[in-house]
Structure formats: C-alpha cells, structure tokens
Amino acid sequence: MRLPAFLALWCFVATLLWGEGATQDRPNVILIYADDLGIGMLGCYGQKIVTTPNIDRLASEGIKFNNYYGGVFCASARWSLLTGMHDGRIGGWGHNRGGLPIPRDSGKMSEEEYRRQQEKLKANSSPIADDEVFLAQVAQAAGYTTAQFGKIDHGFTTWKERVERYGWDHHVGFYDHTRAHGFYPPYLWRDGERFELAGNYDPHCGKMSEKGDEPVGSGGETYSQNVFIEGILEFIREHKEEPFFIYHPTQLPHGPVAIPKLHPDFAEHPSLSLAEKKYASMVKMLDEHVGLILKELEEQGLAEKTAVFFASDNGHELYYGPKPNYPTRAPNGERTNLTDKKWRTSEHGDVFDGAGGRAGLKRSGYQGGMQCPLIVKWPGRVEAGSETSVLSSHYDFMATLAEMVGGEVPPGKDSVSYLPTLLGKEQRELHDYIVVNNRFNKMARSALITKEGWKLVEIDRGKDRFQLYDLNSDNLEFEDLASQYPERVLELKTILLRELDSERPDL
User: Fold this and answer.
1) Strand order in the sheet with 306-312
2) Rounded Cα–Cα distance for residues 222 and 225 (Å)
3) Are 205 and 211 in contact (CB under 8 A)?
4) Can you give the residue ranges of every domain in the chain?
C-alpha cells in the first residue's frame, strides 16, 4: 500500500535514525485481544473452575497489570486501541451500521440494492483525516510488517481500502462485526479477497440463540477461530526473517456460545449447564490458541525475540445466564439507572464469577465493565512473575509499541508508554487520570480514574448525580464516598465533563 505523504516522510526519518537492519535488536510484537473476557475468567486473576495454563504462563514468565482499563463496549474499546486516544474524544463512539451483508446473503436483498446500500454506508462512515495515524502505521513506519486476524476494524462494517488505511499489510477475517457474532461464516476476507469456508451455509454465520441450548457443533463445519489460528501460525512461519506486528482481535469468548466440541474438562461436568460448558470450552480454546502461538514462536526460534501481549477489550459479559434483570422504574415511578443496582456476578449465580466480584458488567461504568486483564511476556526484558499497579489503558499501547519498535508517537495522542514498567524501570510519565466513556442511555455511565486511586462514576449528569470510590481500598466498589468528599467530586466531575466529547489534539 502506498503510504500517505506525511507517513512516508516519517518512514524516511525512521530509516535515517535507526538504519537498515536496526530492527534486529527490536522485538516482534503480538497482541492477542480477547472479546468480552472478564478479568475474573483467567486463572492468574483468580478463576477457579476454568484453567488457563497458557495465559497463566504469560503471567508467570512475564508481567501482570492490576490497574488496567479498556472500554465498556467493543467498538469504543477498539477505537481507543487503534487511535491512541481515550474514547471520550470526538469520534470515540462513532461506528457504522452492521449486518448489511446478511440480507444480501439470505436472498432478501438484491445484489444491486446491496451495492447501493454499501456505497451509502461508506459515504456516511466516520471520515478519516488525512493526517491521522493509526496503531499499525506506527509499526509500519518503523519497518515492521503488520497483520491482523479476526474481527477487523473497530466496528461495525469495513472494506479493503479502509483496512489498508489503518495500516495493515495483511488481514484475514470478518468485514462485519454483526456477522462475527456467529462462528460459522460461509466466507471470510483475506487481503480484500473473499474466500469460502467449507460446510458453512448459514447467512447469519451460525449465530446461536442467547439460551445457548443448541447441540454442540451446530452452525456449520468450519469454525472461524480455527481459520484464524492457522493463519497466524502460517504468518509467523513465513515472516520469521523480518520484524512483524500481529494483532489478533479474536471472537472468543463473545457469545452467543458456540463451539465445535466440548472441552474434556467440562464434557461430563456434573453441575454445569450446557451453555456454561460451551462458554468454558470457548475460554479453553482461547487459552489453547495462546499456547499454539507460544509453541510456534519456540519452534521458529523467535520466542526470545517476541513480546506477547494479552488483553481484553472490555469487561465481562454473560452469555450463559443468568442475565441481569434491572427494573426500569423505581417504586416511586422515577426511572432508575442500571448502575444504581451494582449487579455482581458473584452475588447472582454466575458459577464462574467472570467479573471477579467487581460491580457491573460490559456496558457498565463500574469496574466489572471496564477493568481488564493485561499480561506481557518478553523474555530477557520483562521480569518473570512480576506485577504492577501502574494506571494504564488501551490507548497506551500505541506509545508503548512505538517505543518498543523504535518508532515515534504521533503528536497529540493521549497515549503514554508503559515500557519503563515492562522493563522494571521507574515509570516517570504517568496519567493523571484515565477516561472511560459510556453512552448507552441518556443517563450516561462514564468514569474517571485518577493515579491516586479515586474513581468518579457518572450516574445521571442531568440530575448532577455522581458516585465516588477509593479503589485503593475498595476496588469492588461497595462504598460510595461522594457525600464525604463533595469537593473532590466537584474537582473530578469538572475534569470528566471537560474530557467527554472533547476535541482531538492529534488532528
């Protein structure tokens, strides 16, 4: 792909600075980005039922972050990761229509009408500024080959030219995130070329019901995640002689639950429901795929030359029951807010307690909706078995990647590199606060987390209702301290409201 003029100049400067062959001293980078995986679903973060030995190995041989934040929803979390900006910025919640190919594939829309709607969608999608720099372009400018496998783009529908504009030299996966809610697509896309998947015929890609009671293996024959892991392993083999950056935004364990076969750990489990067995098997598959990647790196002699990151886009979601049942009206008839209920998986029959006792789920302004795992294994550079409480977020990956690969952080980004923390050095540059935006109803549930450990949760902006928590002593958010610290609430509220829908300093 021909780089924009500004980026081509950037590449030229990078070549002058680091010289040909300088990448030999810089690591390959792999980011595995789980989908709706609660922090409590991993053994290294406290999971008791589902074992995750390969992900736990990343932690035992690397570093585990305990104060790391994503978004509250897939599109905003991915936008933040790819742009290096917090999702309160203008555009942070912009995404287009999903599912457009489904009526065409179902025969309910003509090819002519589909193309007309597709062009309309492209025209109405969030425009990309000429000078905008995305995550993969940072690696490209430093001489890396970039590739992504899985849920392409940030949401919901994309196309070849847009993917290339984001900086990906190679890509395999879904161009539509609505289709990605099924694991048996009739076709996927590879570098702009459509390819068919054997034995898959459902236009809805084998999407199951939310009950999760369909027979195991329903939906088709070729499971999309197996296509992705095969592609990743092949890419590693083919590009082992050059520096690469792989981004794997996996579907797992996003529901509705579907799996080719139950994992032996759960097939005969005496107390788990079928849906719970499927979900546990999906988490196990994710863990096993991490193991396959680590094994391939070892076989290709790349284990010592590769930094492997593992994270999840947002907090936990329930695809196996029980679903939260929030009242829409209080006893006095006043409308209530979902966050007022502080629903906890640990208190409502979630056998896995996927949020690890935290309040809230995906789409919530509480910790269960936004606190995410981050684990990094980088042999010889990251101390094995280490942990950190440094405040960080998805948008910090851009600056971290840039520093690792010898690149430049584009000016104006919110991103702060946590590379010093990875290397066991003093983290001199710190965020004063992290912003997590939320727009799921009129009473938004955005949040601000400070480096001192205070968290402000927006309950109802119109009624000036906010909650305050001290995460140092109450990460599970049991005690609202707003009435005790009104001046601090005012201070943090001023910052949060200033950051929501704020201009982008990088453009």
Assistant:
1) 193-196, 187-190, 170-174, 145-151, 244-249, 28-34, 306-312, 374-377, 63-65, 386-388
2) 9
3) no
4) 27-430
Q: Report the pLDDT value the prediction gives residue 24, as an integer from 0 to 100.
A: 46
Tell if the pTM clears 0.85, that is, is over it: yes
Peptide bond preceding 127 in cis form (omega within 30 of 0): no
Residue 93's pLDDT is what? 86
pLDDT at 155: 82
- Which residues 6+ apart lie within 8 Å of 2 measured at CB? none
Residue found by looking up tokens 């990309």 in the block: 128
Would you say residue 263 has pLDDT above 70? yes
DSSP annotation of 425 reads: S
Evaluate if residue 507 carries a pLDDT over 60.
Answer: yes
β-strand partners of 69:
371, 393
> What is the rounded average pLDDT of the residues 384-409?
97
Which residue in this structure is represented by tokens 């720099």?
133
Outline where DSSP puts E strands in 412-483. 433-436, 447-450, 454-460, 465-470
Strand (E) or helix (H) holding 69: strand 68-69
Q: In the prediction, which pLDDT does 97 show?
A: 87
- The position carrying tokens 């094995």 is 384
96 and 177 Cβ atoms separated by less than 8 Å: no
The pairing of strands 447-450 and 454-460 is: antiparallel
Packing angle, helices 53-60 and 274-299, rounded to 10: 50
* C-alpha R_g of the chain: 22
Q: Which CATH number fits domain 27-430: 3.40.720.10, 3.40.50.1820, 3.30.70.270, 3.40.50.300?
A: 3.40.720.10
- Determine the Cα–Cα distance for residues 226 and 231; give it in Å rounded to an integer: 9
Q: Write out pLDDT tens, residues 209-238.
A: 989 999 999 999 999 999 999 999 999 999
Distance CA 4, CA 419 (A): 28
Residue 20: φ, ψ to 5°: -70, 130
DSSP state, residue 52: -
* Mean pLDDT for the stretch of residues 131-138: 97
Q: Within a 10 A sphere around the Cβ of 130, how many other Cβ atoms?
A: 9
pLDDT for 8: 52
Confidence of residue 339 (pLDDT cuts 50, 70, 90): very low
- Position 300 scores a pLDDT of 98
Give the chain's end-to-end CA distance (angstroms, integer): 22
